[in-house]
Amino acid sequence: MALIPFDDRDGSIWLNGEIIPWRDAKTHTLSHGLHYASLVFEGERVYSGMIFKGREHTERLRNSCKLMDFDIPISDDEVDAAKMAVIEANGITDGYVRAFCWRGSEMMAVSAQMTKIHVAIAAWEWPSYFDPETKMKGITLDIAKWKRPSPESAPVHAKAAGLYMICTLSKHEAEKNGFQDALMLDYRGYIAEATGANVFFVDGEGTIHTPIADCFLDGITRRTVIALAESKQMKVVQRHMSPEDMAGMKECFLTGTAAEVTPVSKIGDYSFTPAEVSRQLVDGYEDLVRGRITI
C-alpha cells in the first residue's frame, strides 16, 4: 500500500492562531525545534466528534512546555477551541489530533531564549487499530536494547520529541526481528514501557501489575485504565518490575491514545494468553470513550 505523505494531504491545520490549508502549514528548515528537539506534542483521540479527555491533554501539553523552559502563548481554553475548530474544519468523527509547540528560527544555537514559540494543531481520520477479535489475539514485542533514561538525564515527564528517538530505534529493530513493537527497560533494568504505550501484566490471581511511572510518561490512558480496572473491583499494583517477573504473569496488555487497550501475546521469550481481564478492559475502555459508561 502506497504511503500518503503527511505534507501532501487535503484538509486544514491550525497554525499560530488561524486555520490554513493543510499544504501551507510549514515552518523554516532552520527551526530550533527541528535541530535541537525543542518540541513537545500531544496525541489525542476523537470519538463521535469529541476529544476524549481533551483538557487533560492540553494541561499536559503546557506542562511539557514548561519542562522544556517555554510556555504555550495562548490559554488552555484557546487551545481546546482550536482543537475543536480543526476537527470541524476537517469533518472528523473518529480520528486523531496532534497538538504541538516548538521553538522557531530566531536563534540557531543551543541557547535559544529569544525564539518565538509556535503552536500547531492537525487532525485526521483514524479508526481503531484492530477490530475487537483481532485485538484479542495479542501483539508481539521484542525487548529493546535502548533504555529509558534517568530523571537526572532528561525531562522524562515531558512528552518531548527528543525522548522518542530511542523509541523509533527500538521499534525499527523489533520490526526487523519480526515483532510488532518493543518493550523498553529503564536505566536501572526495570520494565518501563513499550515505545509509545504503557504496559500492564496480570498474574494468576487476577491482580494487575504495572511499572511505577517514575522515569517515563504517566499516560492519560494509563491512569484511565487503572481507574476503570478499580471500578470493576480489580486490584492494581504499581511497582518496580524486573524482566524475570514476566515469567509469573498470565496476561499482558498495552495502553495508550493510539493503542487504547491492546493485549500482548509475547514479549521476547515470555508468552501470555489474552483472557478475561484483558477482555473486560478492552470492552470497558471502548464503552468509556464512547460515553456508554462513566467512572
Structural summary, described in words:
There is one protein chain. The protein is of the alpha+beta class and 295 residues long. The protein is built from 7 helices and 15 strands. It has helices at residues 32-36, 54-67, 76-89, 132-135, 165-176, 220-231, 276-289; strands spanning 12-15, 18-21, 39-47, 50-51, 95-103, 117-125, 139-148, 181-186, 191-194, 198-203, 208-210, 236-238, 249-256, 260-267, 270-271. The mean pLDDT is 97.
**Residues in β-strands, percent:** 25-35%
Please identify, by name, the CATH architecture of the largest domain: Alpha-Beta Barrel
Uncertain runs: none
Order of helices and strands: EEHEEHHEEHEHEEEEHEEEEH
- CATH C-level name of the largest domain: Alpha Beta
Radius of gyration: 19 Å
Distance between the termini: 40 Å
The largest β sheet comes out as: 9 strands, mixed
Determine the structural class based on helices, strands and strand pairing: alpha+beta
The gross shape turns out to be: globular
Output the number of helix runs: 7
CATH topology of the largest domain: D-amino Acid Aminotransferase, Chain A, domain 2
Helix percentage: 25-40%
Mean pLDDT: 97
Number of domains: 2
Write down how many β-strands occur, each being a DSSP E stretch of 2 or more residues.
15
Question: Can you tell me the CATH superfamily of the largest domain?
Answer: D-amino Acid Aminotransferase, subunit A, domain 2
